[in-house]
Design goal:
By secondary structure, this protein is an alpha/beta fold. The protein has helices at residues 17-20, 83-98, 106-118, 125-145, 150-154, 174-186, 200-214, 230-242, 257-266, 280-288, 299-316, 330-341, 353-360, 388-391; strands at residues 3-14, 44-46, 53-55, 57-67, 72-77, 161-167, 191-195, 219-223, 248-249, 271-273, 294-295, 320-321, 349-351, 373-375. Strand 8 (219-223), helix 8 (230-242) and strand 9 form a beta-alpha-beta unit.
């Protein structure tokens, strides 16, 4: 089966930030003093307390691959900002690299695309996101060609549910966040992740409020959003340990391997990282220096092919997996679920119900999700089909 066409579509879907802030994809309050002009950057805002850009939209890149046998595969690249760049990488470069190649050989395609640019210094960022989107689409084709869900091709059962945590608490204050948490606890939620979007003291007060409300009936995790210094991270981790928090995520700048290693050795809670990295080559130094306790690969950035190698690397070093699933549409979510289903070292999956609500609007067959568990789609391939007519108005 040959690849006949590869097409990427940048997508931007408006959303209600007042309803989404505090949850995965928009974890922090955003500055509103950006120049109110009509420039291309007017919908990108800085986080209030640290230097990272977020979009006021849901932004992503969808990938459609067609074959000479009439089978079409869908992929998605994690593209929270500037999906036009990821789409251009695919349409202008990678499509020509793999057109006419075997559509049932995703491993070969990943290696070929990566090799095409590695000697030019491109081993991360938009290029790898683009490769991931194509890789996911090829796995979708493989599953459809063999009439099996992707997780079956990878060696897992097709009848699988995965434990999850609710990622982020919507609300502008502790009272509103606790009310949001209560609705999910009543729906069966067993775990929540909180974001360090303000001060450490504010975060600890929220944790104390959750412990008072729900005691030890829910697990809690904290994402520091790369904001802490090494010394502050140690003291903050100590406070989290006193409150029985399950992990401290993204504590330091993502380039700091040595700092993460020292922190992992001294922190009283497990250290979780992974969403900022895309390949085993990037992650190997962290494993070698024992600079993490939990790996959080993002399949929208690594693809299924490289994601499996990251999972094997983690298993080799006795590290658990908690895949990162942030802002995106159903293709990316489904790919992460199939990936999680096959990982023996899986700990828990991330779930942002507000993202799932939007994603399901553009699927012919919505993904099943709940506050405590996620259902892996059972249909062949990724098990989902895009409603192209609904998405068309949001394609840039």
């Amino acid at each position: 089966m040959k690849i006949t066409s590869v097409t990427a579509y940048p997508v931007k879907i408006p959303r209600d930030l007042s309803n989404a802030t505090g949850t995965a994809g928009t974890p922090a309050r955003l500055l509103r003093d950006n120049p109110p002009d009509a420039s291309a950057l007017s919908h990108y805002l800085w986080a209030e307390n640290y230097r990272t850009l977020y979009s006021t939209n849901i932004e992503t890149t969808l990938v459609k691959i067609e074959t000479d046998k009439g089978i079409t595969g869908w992929g998605e690249s994690q593209s929270p900002v500037a999906p036009e760049i990821t789409a251009t990488v695919i349409n202008s470069l990678l499509a020509s690299v793999i057109t006419d190649d075997d559509a049932l050989a995703p491993e070969q395609a990943w290696s070929k695309m990566y090799a095409a640019m590695r000697v030019r210094g491109h081993t991360g960022s938009f290029l790898l996101d683009a490769i991931a989107g194509i890789d996911i689409a090829l796995w979708d084709i493989c599953g459809k060609a063999y009439a099996q869900p992707v997780c079956r091709l990878l060696g897992a059962s097709s009848d699988t549910t995965l434990p999850c945590y609710v990622s982020g608490l919507s609300g502008s204050n502790v009272t509103e966040k606790l009310a949001y948490a209560r609705t999910h606890v009543e729906a069966g939620a067993k775990a929540f992740k909180l974001f360090l979007d303000g001060t450490e003291a504010e975060c600890l007060r929220l944790i104390d409020g959750l412990r008072e409300a729900f005691e030890m009936t829910v697990d809690l995790y904290v994402d520091a959003l790369w904001r802490l210094t090494p010394k502050l991270a140690v003291s903050f981790a100590r406070e989290l340990a006193r409150r029985k928090v399950g992990w401290l995520e993204a504590p330091l700048m993502p380039e700091d391997v040595a700092g993460h290693a020292r922190l992992t050795a001294h922190a009283e809670v497990p250290i979780a990282i992974g969403e900022s990295y895309r390949t085993r080559f990037e992650m190997l130094p962290f494993f070698e220096q024992r600079a993490l306790d939990i790996l959080q690969p993002d399949i929208g950035r690594s693809g299924i092919t490289e994601g499996r190698k990251l999972a094997a690397l983690a298993d080799t070093f006795h590290v658990k997996l908690a895949p990162h699933i942030s802002i995106g549409l159903g293709v990316q979510i489904a790919a992460a679920l199939h990936f999680g289903a096959v990982c023996d070292n899986l700990m828990v999956m991330e779930c942002n119900p507000k993202v799932y609500e939007v994603a399901n609007k553009f699927l012919m067959n919505p993904i099943e999700y709940g506050s405590a568990a996620l259902v892996v789609p059972e249909a062949p391939g990724l098990g989902i089909e895009i409603n192209e007519a609904k998405l068309e108005q949001f394609s840039v």
